[in-house]
Hints:
mainly alpha; single chain; 0% strand; globular
Amino acid sequence: MKTVNYGDQAYEVLRNDLCKEDLCDSVENEEEKPIAGPVKEKWRNHAGFWILGLTNNFAYVVMLSAAFDILARQLGQKKDDMTKGYHCNPHSTGIILLADILPTLLIKWTAPFFMQSISYNFRVASVVLFAFGSFLLVALFKNVFLSILGVVFASISCGFGEITFLSLTAHFHSNTVSSWSAGTGAAGVSAAFAYAGMTTVGVSPEKTLLVMLVVPLLMAFGYWGLLKPENNFDHTSSTSSKSFIKKRTSDATASLTFKEKLQLVKPLVKYMIPLFFVYFAEYIINQGLFELLYYPNSTMNHAGQYRWLQFCYQFGVLISRSSVNIIKIEKIEILAALQYINFIVLLLEVYYRFIPSIWITLSIGLFEGLLGGGVYVNAFYRVAIEADPKYREFSMGAASMADSSGITLAGALSMPLHSYLCKFAKSPI
């Protein structure tokens, strides 16, 4: 989730344009009135949105970290019996990736057309229940269909939650967007670390997922227990007063024809192409190659190695997505190209096993996350400052389709890649 907050800069640009039309006073009066009263209540709102960002993306990341364990249930042999050859699950973890991304992608395409008629209370309750159900299904049922259904629930919760909570920030101070973004960034590392850490110390994957039932409860607390909205906002209503800027931006986009919207997409292509390709490469690594990388001399078993590879990747993403205020990179296509070097190196490692230590591979996983997060944050930074302020919301949304599409294609192709490599991998180590 994971967007960088450029709301203040966007506001200044748009305000200057509106002042030329003698409308800046109405914007200033609407935007600068007190939000939720005292400073204490503002901090409650920031804490609430940070918790919502953390908990909304938590299940999504956990399901990717648990992908090896979910599918390993179908094996008739022990997960750590790796001494005589590779341990290939009958299905690629790409199945988990597709189950974790396709519902989110579908929601992004459809939700804006119907969610305005649904109250926020009902939306959030649905998000919480789907997240709760995802942990229960994956933890309690060993049937692969029900397990994957649990992953689908996590995806529905994450996708609908993202749209819901980002829309909700319109009723609070603009800085709550950065609190939400910070929470989503922390979700990747905390979820991967929590799952890998608990299972490493001996807690079973099933019990680990049951412990994580506290996460949707924390989400409910963040929404109903912490947020203190404006007096004119009603949680039970599907609509409330919107800011002048929000109305103006939406109206400007809504008035465009389909052909005109395509014209707005053209300047974004130079950022969407690197986004698509970098995410395609990193997710085909994560779900097609990570589970086939195994180092028998390590103190970790195969499943443990897979979990920590996922953690190192997420840690790299967290670092790079937090870096745009320190370093800005314009040539993001170079980062995307480097990601394919990572893919080639790890593909060759699956075949020839020339890397002597898992610590080197963990470092590659960290570097992979740095590249992917670097492309993401710099691409959206460029879109945010270059897009016409009237159409910035549309431009950010259109650009976001690139990474989701790359992830989806990676999930589809990682499955035949996994099957092919497993045929080779049956030979002795």
